[in-house]
Amino acid sequence: MYSTDNDTLDASLDDCRALALRIRRHVVRMTHRAKSSHVGSSLSMADLLAVLYSRVLRLDPSRPDWPDRDRFILSKGHAAAAAYAVLAERGFFPVAALDTFYQDGSALAGHITHTGVPGVDASTGSLGHGLGLACGMALAATPGGHGRDARSYRVFALLSDGECDEGSIWEAALFAAHEGLENLVAIVDYNKIQSLGRVEDVMPLEPFAEKWRAFGWAVREIDGHDVAAIAAALKAAPFAAGRPSCVIAHTVKGKGVSFMEDKLLWHYRPPDEQELRLALAELEAL
Amino acid sequence: MRPAFIRTLVELADSDPRINLVVGDLGFGVVEPFAAKFPSRFVNAGVAEQNMTTLAAGMALCGKVVFTYSIANFPTLRCLEQIRNDVCYHRAAVKIVSVGGGLGYGALGVSHHATEDLAVLRALPNLTVVAPGDPLEAELATRAIVDAPGPCYLRLGKSGEPRVHPARAALDFRLGKALTVLDGHDLTLIATGTMLATAVQVAERLAGDGIQARVLSMHTVKPLDTEAVLAAARETAAVVTLEEHSIIGGLGSAVAEVLAESDGARVPFKRLGVPPSFTSLVGSQEYLKAAYGLSIEGVLNSLRESIWPRLGQRAFAAAL
To answer: Which member of B45, B62, B81 has the closest CB to residue A175?
Structure first.
């Protein structure tokens, strides 16, 4: 069922790693040029996006509105740079358009936006909206079959850890379990740093996996930078019959650029010329 | 209006499989016919209006026409950002229904008085704002908002509102087009929602004094029928708006904006509505309407105080 002429779902793990690297290079260039925030948030989820877009999501870049496509909602909309990068790499629009990120008259807003951007299923930016949107989309899929084919498409929502402070996330979590949305997968980019500090200091989420389980979800915890682990988890969903799936991806904010890793500063600071050169040198060397 | 709404929705859903109803754990004694007939298209989102609204947007983005349903401020102010970002920005076919618009929940208190919803929602792009004036308008509005693409807000009374329009056949109900309930040239009463019946009753009292009032049902607050407003300003001697809503931001403000920006529409004008303070008095809808000047007598008093003196004694000697 999950194969069409336009799919590239058989991409190798090496292809995934290469795509993640290209996403990271785009991200540091885009945030440098835009002088924009959120480079760390974009880098932490680059591997997740690379696997989703090359091995998991059933998509057709020539038909972005294909009704039976899998849906992807970036609930942490501030990490738009990485999402635009992967969409361009997948051919939804030209890679050259990434240069317009944040620029006057561009379609590429700082928080992910659907207007004029093929492949974006929903705009977000205010936190706590994406899981509810994904619930509605999952519910609207045509029922039938079982397991991963229980409905006509699957829906993936990528959440930040900080946004799990929002009550609306847990409203949606209750709902998805109650409705038994097997075709829904929530992925949390658990990079442990939120807007004003470390998650454990600002508003601790632990025991995090237990919270999702208590809300009725089937949960797996993975290393969010291990493309094999990501692919295995996302391919295996749903993890339990009749339940939505949650992947808690342990990640490092700013992953891939040594001086950005695990630093709150890079939630805000754009790389300057020198930092861009250093970052690209590290990303080329990988 | 509530029974008319659900009866119409069940009828429409019978032939339109896109229609879904998502409730926020309210609607006892109202929504059961829909739930019984279309169990797979009825969703109770629980006491969670943010998620109710957001998931409705998600469903609508996948081809459904989704009604959200709750009472008073719960489907609107409680989840305002969800309406703005998820519904309106995406032009999602979500039809937000609130029951008890205005003071319909009377003695239940301030939490249950929807007196700022029109003001707040009128400001949102892509959103059509509709407040039917009687059960027949509620039925026709329900049909119209299903046909209209994109987001709508449907503000209903609770139940037991009097029928204002005598004959359905004569009613040319179109979103964005005011209905002339009574014609007259002395002044115009523009009413929305639950104030329509009061406006007609006021006009009947005025007629007894020889004053011919035009009564417009402005069931669509946005987009506003500016032509009807300007015609009223041109053809009648005064314009008065009536709404069960704060005088800030609702119908009265919308009409004022049109009049203020028009050339030559200089006409005595008055907004009648709930004063811009919390409606903390305790009592029935009728009691509260009277207390806030929205009963028949209250409206007549306002006309005597604010409109008649500006028109000159000769024109309305009888009313003075």
So the answer is: B45
